[in-house]
Amino acid sequence: MKRIGKWVFFVVFILILAFTYTSVFGIYSEYGDYTITYIKGIQDIRWGIDIKGGVEAVFAPEDGVDASDDQMNAVKSIIDLRLVNQNVTDYELYPDFTNDRITVRFPWKSDEENYDPGEAIKELASTAKMVFRGGSTQDGEELLTGSDVTRAYVSTITDSKGEHPIVVNLEFTEDGKTKFKDATTKYLNQTISIWMDDTCISAPSVNSVISDGNCYIEGGSNGGFSAEEATSLANKINAGALPFNLKIESYGTISPSLGTYALQAMGIASVAALCFIFLFMLIMYRVPGFVAFIALLGQLSISIMAVSGYFTFIPSFTMTIPGIAGMILSIGMGVDANIITAERIKDELWTGKTLDGCIANGTKSSLSAIIDGNITIIIVAVILILVFGPANIFSAIFGVSTTGLIYAFGYTLLVGVIANFIMGVFASRLMLRSISGLKFLRNKGLYGGKKKS
Question: For the residues 306-332, what does the mean pLDDT come to?
Fold first, then answer.
């Protein structure tokens, strides 16, 4: 086995400690009453309704409006879209078609001292702005608005292959008909994108000039939507052309089912559990156990980073009790992976081989077992995210009340397992091969083998 420089262990060790500290405490600076956040920590996590409570609001059409079921579905779709765009995944959304009411519940923001729930509710209730733009970017030329669309609905067509793909049909007003003819003439064989607020909901290509005010949007690489995808897009387009505004009928606060004190107790219990794991790994596996614990800290820091908004390209995430459970389960997988490696190294040491050879063979023979175990967990986590993810096509089947909770579990579980591959498989092996080169740590007894006489 080719040795790795002794300095590698110290570099990786320092980096992991730095990541752990900054992910937990963050980096801030204060200028009087103003705080600048450079790196977000645990205190920036947006906790779910079950942990810190939140807001409940009831929306209704403006006075004198009798909303149809299609219009109510359109309103539900746009509120759904706006919550997801704000990275709120733990929310509940209930339409009441009989009384024309929509109830929405969502958690407080992490900085609830400066958070105005009334403004957040007004933002959700404001009329959606839908714009057709030339090209596929938000700065493209504005061609039409939601007021130019009469309605959007789902249908099927017969294509050149004799198949019947599902499409979304659009009907335009008289003024919109003229605008759309000009738009399709100018952007023939190009893209016209549809934007809802700041989100692109569709970007179809223009195949011909359309002058009669009727067109359809095809979806997918095979030329067709699924029924759920087409319905969702039609609802969003209709939401941009709703003939009424929403009014806030009532709103109030929701008490958490867990509470702040229980969260603090969980934090103390987590620290105690980490200390116990450290002692167990150190006593049972000595040097490999010490290295494994360092890797475990790295795994934990990555899991925290993925929910706090530590990295600017990964938005903050709503953390719920099931989300915490997913993180704990992934840490257990990380401990298990390092135990498997340490045991394989111990088995190799009792065969009388050299220390370097035993570390190489032990880490190699344990890799397949670790990968097999983690891959199965990844598959389960991905399925949970796809099925119970916010604003997805399966929500109508499984119910919106459980969507955010189970999605949070799948998300933190997936992130934790990926972090286990980075830290528990790659970084721990790198550190172990490096630290074993230190002269005072060459005794096989420090790795679970026979002590030198």
Answer: 84
